[in-house]
Amino acid sequence: MISTSLLPLETPTPAHICPFDQACSYLEAAARELKLDQGILEILSNPRKVITVSIPVKLDNGEIRVFAGHRVQHSDILGPYKGGIRYHPAVTLREVSALAMLMTWKCALLGIPYGGAKGGIAIAPKNYSVGELERITRRFISELIKDIGPSVDIPAPDMGTSAREMAWMMDTYSVNVGHAVPGVVTGKPLSVGGSLGREMATGRGAMIVVREALKDLGKSLHGTRVAIQGFGNVGGAAAQLFYEAGAKVVAVSNSTIGIYSETGLDIPAVKAYMMANHQSLIGYPQATAISNAELLTLPCDVLVPAALENQITEENVNQVQAKIVAEAANGPVTLEADRSLQARGVIVLPDILANAGGVVVSYLEWVQGLSYLFWDEERVNREMENLMVHAYHQVVEQSRKREIPLRLAAYTLGVGRVAKALTDRGLYP
After folding, report:
1. Alpha-carbon span 112 to 365, nearest angstrom
2. Phi, psi of 334 (to 5 degrees)
3. What tens digit of pLDDT does each residue of 211-243 get?
4. How many Cα atoms occupy the beta-carbon half-sphere of 353 within 13 Å?
5. How far is CA 272 from CA 111, 266, 277, 313, 412, in A?
6. What confidence category does residue 151 fall into, taking pLDDT thresholds of 50, 70 and 90?
7. How far apart are CA 127 and CA 46, in angstroms?
8. pLDDT reported for residue 17
9. Interatomic CA distance for residues 384 and 391, integer angstroms
10. 3-state secondary structure of 48
11. Which of 131, 298, 314, 383 is the most buried if burial means most Cβ atoms within 10 Å?
């Protein structure tokens, strides 16, 4: 059993599933397959550094509130820490610890010279003004100033954050060190060193691996029925790209409602409707209203969970009708549900592969920022696609060679590369 002595005990969220325990289960499975030394496993199972800071902020009404901000740095064996910062009420230290670990394997799998990190604050951004969010963000980064940097730890957007927050973070860090440092964060606006292609990157990466999986089945995206849970930055981009590739996007959803059309949705029209209706799907006239739970069980060829973790569980997995599940979110399929899908022959494209497009383009943005030489969008997309396609085929080859599922194959590649680097570097006494 993996030791988690560096992390405090918390109530899992949701109550019956702990993301960190699930991440450790996948690590243990990869370690058994790779026959890793127990000492190496022990090192890889624990984050190198766990940081929690107090964030005192004066709200618009004059009230002072103190928030808790977390940053977990799992591993820097392959390079600087890399990972998003999320603002969401469900953020816990164990959740971001799990996501930091997943980032380590994801970067290693894609061949990116990063280690994994993740951070967050348990707030609902919609409950705060822009000014309050800016003060929260700037104070958070000022508290982390000694623990981040372009060669130390490079944050990025995540759930509840965007290019706006990244610009505040970059400015706060730059003011404190006395000069502009565009490489300290990624996912920034173009005006301050962001990269073309970043906004669509995670959704594009998911589309690419689905396209490659369909090719292996002798099929194409054209006419493929796709249902997408989540219509934010990731799901919205994926929906647009699937639509443009000729797929039939039969359903999409946001946090409150979903819409379904058997003949396929006009994705540009759906986006225009949302823009005109305060980002709401309610009342969209050319589709049937459904719940998020119903979307997961629709008849379709490809299901893309692009929202929160733990969406496909042992309670609903037998109702999933898709032939391919592409995890555009982090951990949307629980451990037991994953086993059930495997037993039924459903292809599960694991999150550390399917949603890696974002970190790939973050890496490309970082490279551009360090060199002060910026590329056009075509080159960014081409470089990202090459890395995604290469990683997909490596996972498939590993799966066939070892006769193991795609998820375990992806983990053996990612974990194995980190373990090899750790062994080669040795332990500092």
Report:
1. 13
2. -75, 165
3. 999 999 999 999 999 999 999 889 999 999 999
4. 28
5. 38, 10, 9, 33, 43
6. very high
7. 34
8. 63
9. 11
10. coil
11. 298
Give me the torsion for CA of 238, 243, 249, 253, rounded to 10°: 40
Amino acid occupying residue 19 = P
- Residue 242: closest CA among 224, 254, 257: 224
Specify the DSSP class assigned to residue 13.
S
Is residue 147 classed exposed, middle or buried when 0-12, 13-18 and 19+ CB atoms within 10 A define those classes? Answer: middle
**Residues 6 or more apart from 76 whose CB is under 8 A from it?**
48, 115
In the prediction, which pLDDT does 326 show?
A: 98
Cα distance from N-terminal residue to C-terminal residue, the chain: 25
> Residue 103's pLDDT is what?
96
Tell me if 306 sits within 8 A of 283, measured CB to CB. Answer: no
d(C-alpha 214, C-alpha 401), whole Å: 20
Task: List C-alpha distances in Å: 107 to 188, 352, 407, 415.
Answer: 20, 8, 15, 10
Q: Residue range 312-316: average pLDDT? A: 94
Tell the residue number behind the tokens 């592409």, with chain if given: 326
Each residue's pLDDT tens digit, 353-378: 999 999 999 999 999 989 889 999 99
Contact 322, 303 (CB under 8 A): yes
**β-bridge pairing 64-73 and 288-290:** unpaired
* Strand ranges, E, within 248-339: 248-253, 258-260, 288-290, 302-305, 324-326
Query: Which residues participate in catalysis according to the annotation?
Result: 118
In Å, how far from its chain's centre is CA 121? Answer: 16
Three-state secondary-structure class, residue 156: strand
Q: Give yes or no for a contact between 332 and 307, defined as CB atoms under 8 angstroms apart.
A: yes
Residues pairing with 253 in the sheet: 229, 258
Residue with tokens 């690419």: 208
- Residue whose token pair is 């509840």: 160
CA–CA gap between residue 267 and residue 355 (Å, rounded): 21
Q: What's this model's pTM, rounded to 2 decimal places?
A: 0.90
Say what the pLDDT of residue 8 is.
Answer: 46
pLDDT digits (tens, 9 = 90+) for 55-71: 999 999 999 999 999 99
Condensed to tens digits (0 to 9), the pLDDT of residues 18-51 reads 778 888 899 999 999 999 999 999 999 999 999 9
